[in-house]
Write a structure and sequence with these properties.
Elements (H helix, E strand, L loop, with lengths): L1 H20 L5 E3 L2 E2 L10 H7 L4 E6 L8 E7 L2 E8 L6 E6 L5 E2 L9 H4 L9 E2 L8 E4 L6 E6 L12 H4 L3 E8 L7
Parallel strand pairs: 1-7
Antiparallel strand pairs: 1-2, 3-4, 4-5, 5-6, 6-11, 8-9, 9-10, 10-11
Length: 186
């Protein structure tokens, strides 16, 4: 009986260590994505050191700025987000969230509804996309100067104006951007 108890305790201890070694989920906040901020050097080595449980690689983007050199952070085959450089290419300046498993500080993620992203329904700071981004609504996170949502509907909007509240009920977050650059003066 004592041998069974010892193996049981060893098994519980091992399970506890495995559970404790799992990294906390990355959160998109005012200062960055998890430990990634504008103070992070824009290179694979620096990002890998901050995210040792993720796959980090330099790639050519096909998302935010197609053809631009970016750093992609993945969990196996699942791309989580892309990092974009400052103008001088030395530091991280922004991140495009690519996977719904990442949430911002308000719990919003890719797939969230308009009401979840903007619970007060205020679209006064939102704008409709132009050109290839037409039909998409861009809104800052409530109270944020660094987190932005892209929202879309399965039906094309009626015109170039921000849709009314009734139409926006069917819209969902299709992308999230953290931009660490200083906001433009008001």
């Amino acid at each position: 009986m004592k041998l069974v108890t010892k193996f049981g305790l060893i098994g519980l201890t091992a399970a506890a260590l495995v559970a404790c070694s799992k990294p906390a989920p990355l959160v998109v906040g005012e200062k960055g994505v998890g430990p990634i901020t504008i103070s992070t050097p824009f290179n694979v080595e620096s990002v890998s050191a901050l995210l040792p449980h993720e796959d980090v690689s330099a790639v050519v983007s096909d998302k935010l700025q197609p053809g631009e050199h970016v750093i992609r952070v993945s969990d196996g085959d699942k791309a989580l987000f892309e990092l974009y450089p400052s103008r001088d290419g030395k530091m991280v300046e922004s991140a495009l969230i690519l996977d719904g498993s990442l949430k911002d500080t308000k719990g919003v993620h890719i797939g969230s509804t308009f009401a979840e992203a903007l619970p007060d329904g205020d679209t006064s700071n939102c704008s409709m996309g132009q050109g290839p981004k037409a039909g998409r609504l861009y809104c800052p996170q409530v109270g944020s100067t660094h987190i932005f949502y892209e929202l879309q509907s399965s039906l094309p909007p009626k015109g170039d104006a921000v849709p009314d509240a009734n139409e926006l009920k069917t819209w969902t977050v299709t992308a999230m951007l953290w931009d660490g650059s200083e906001p433009a003066p008001q």
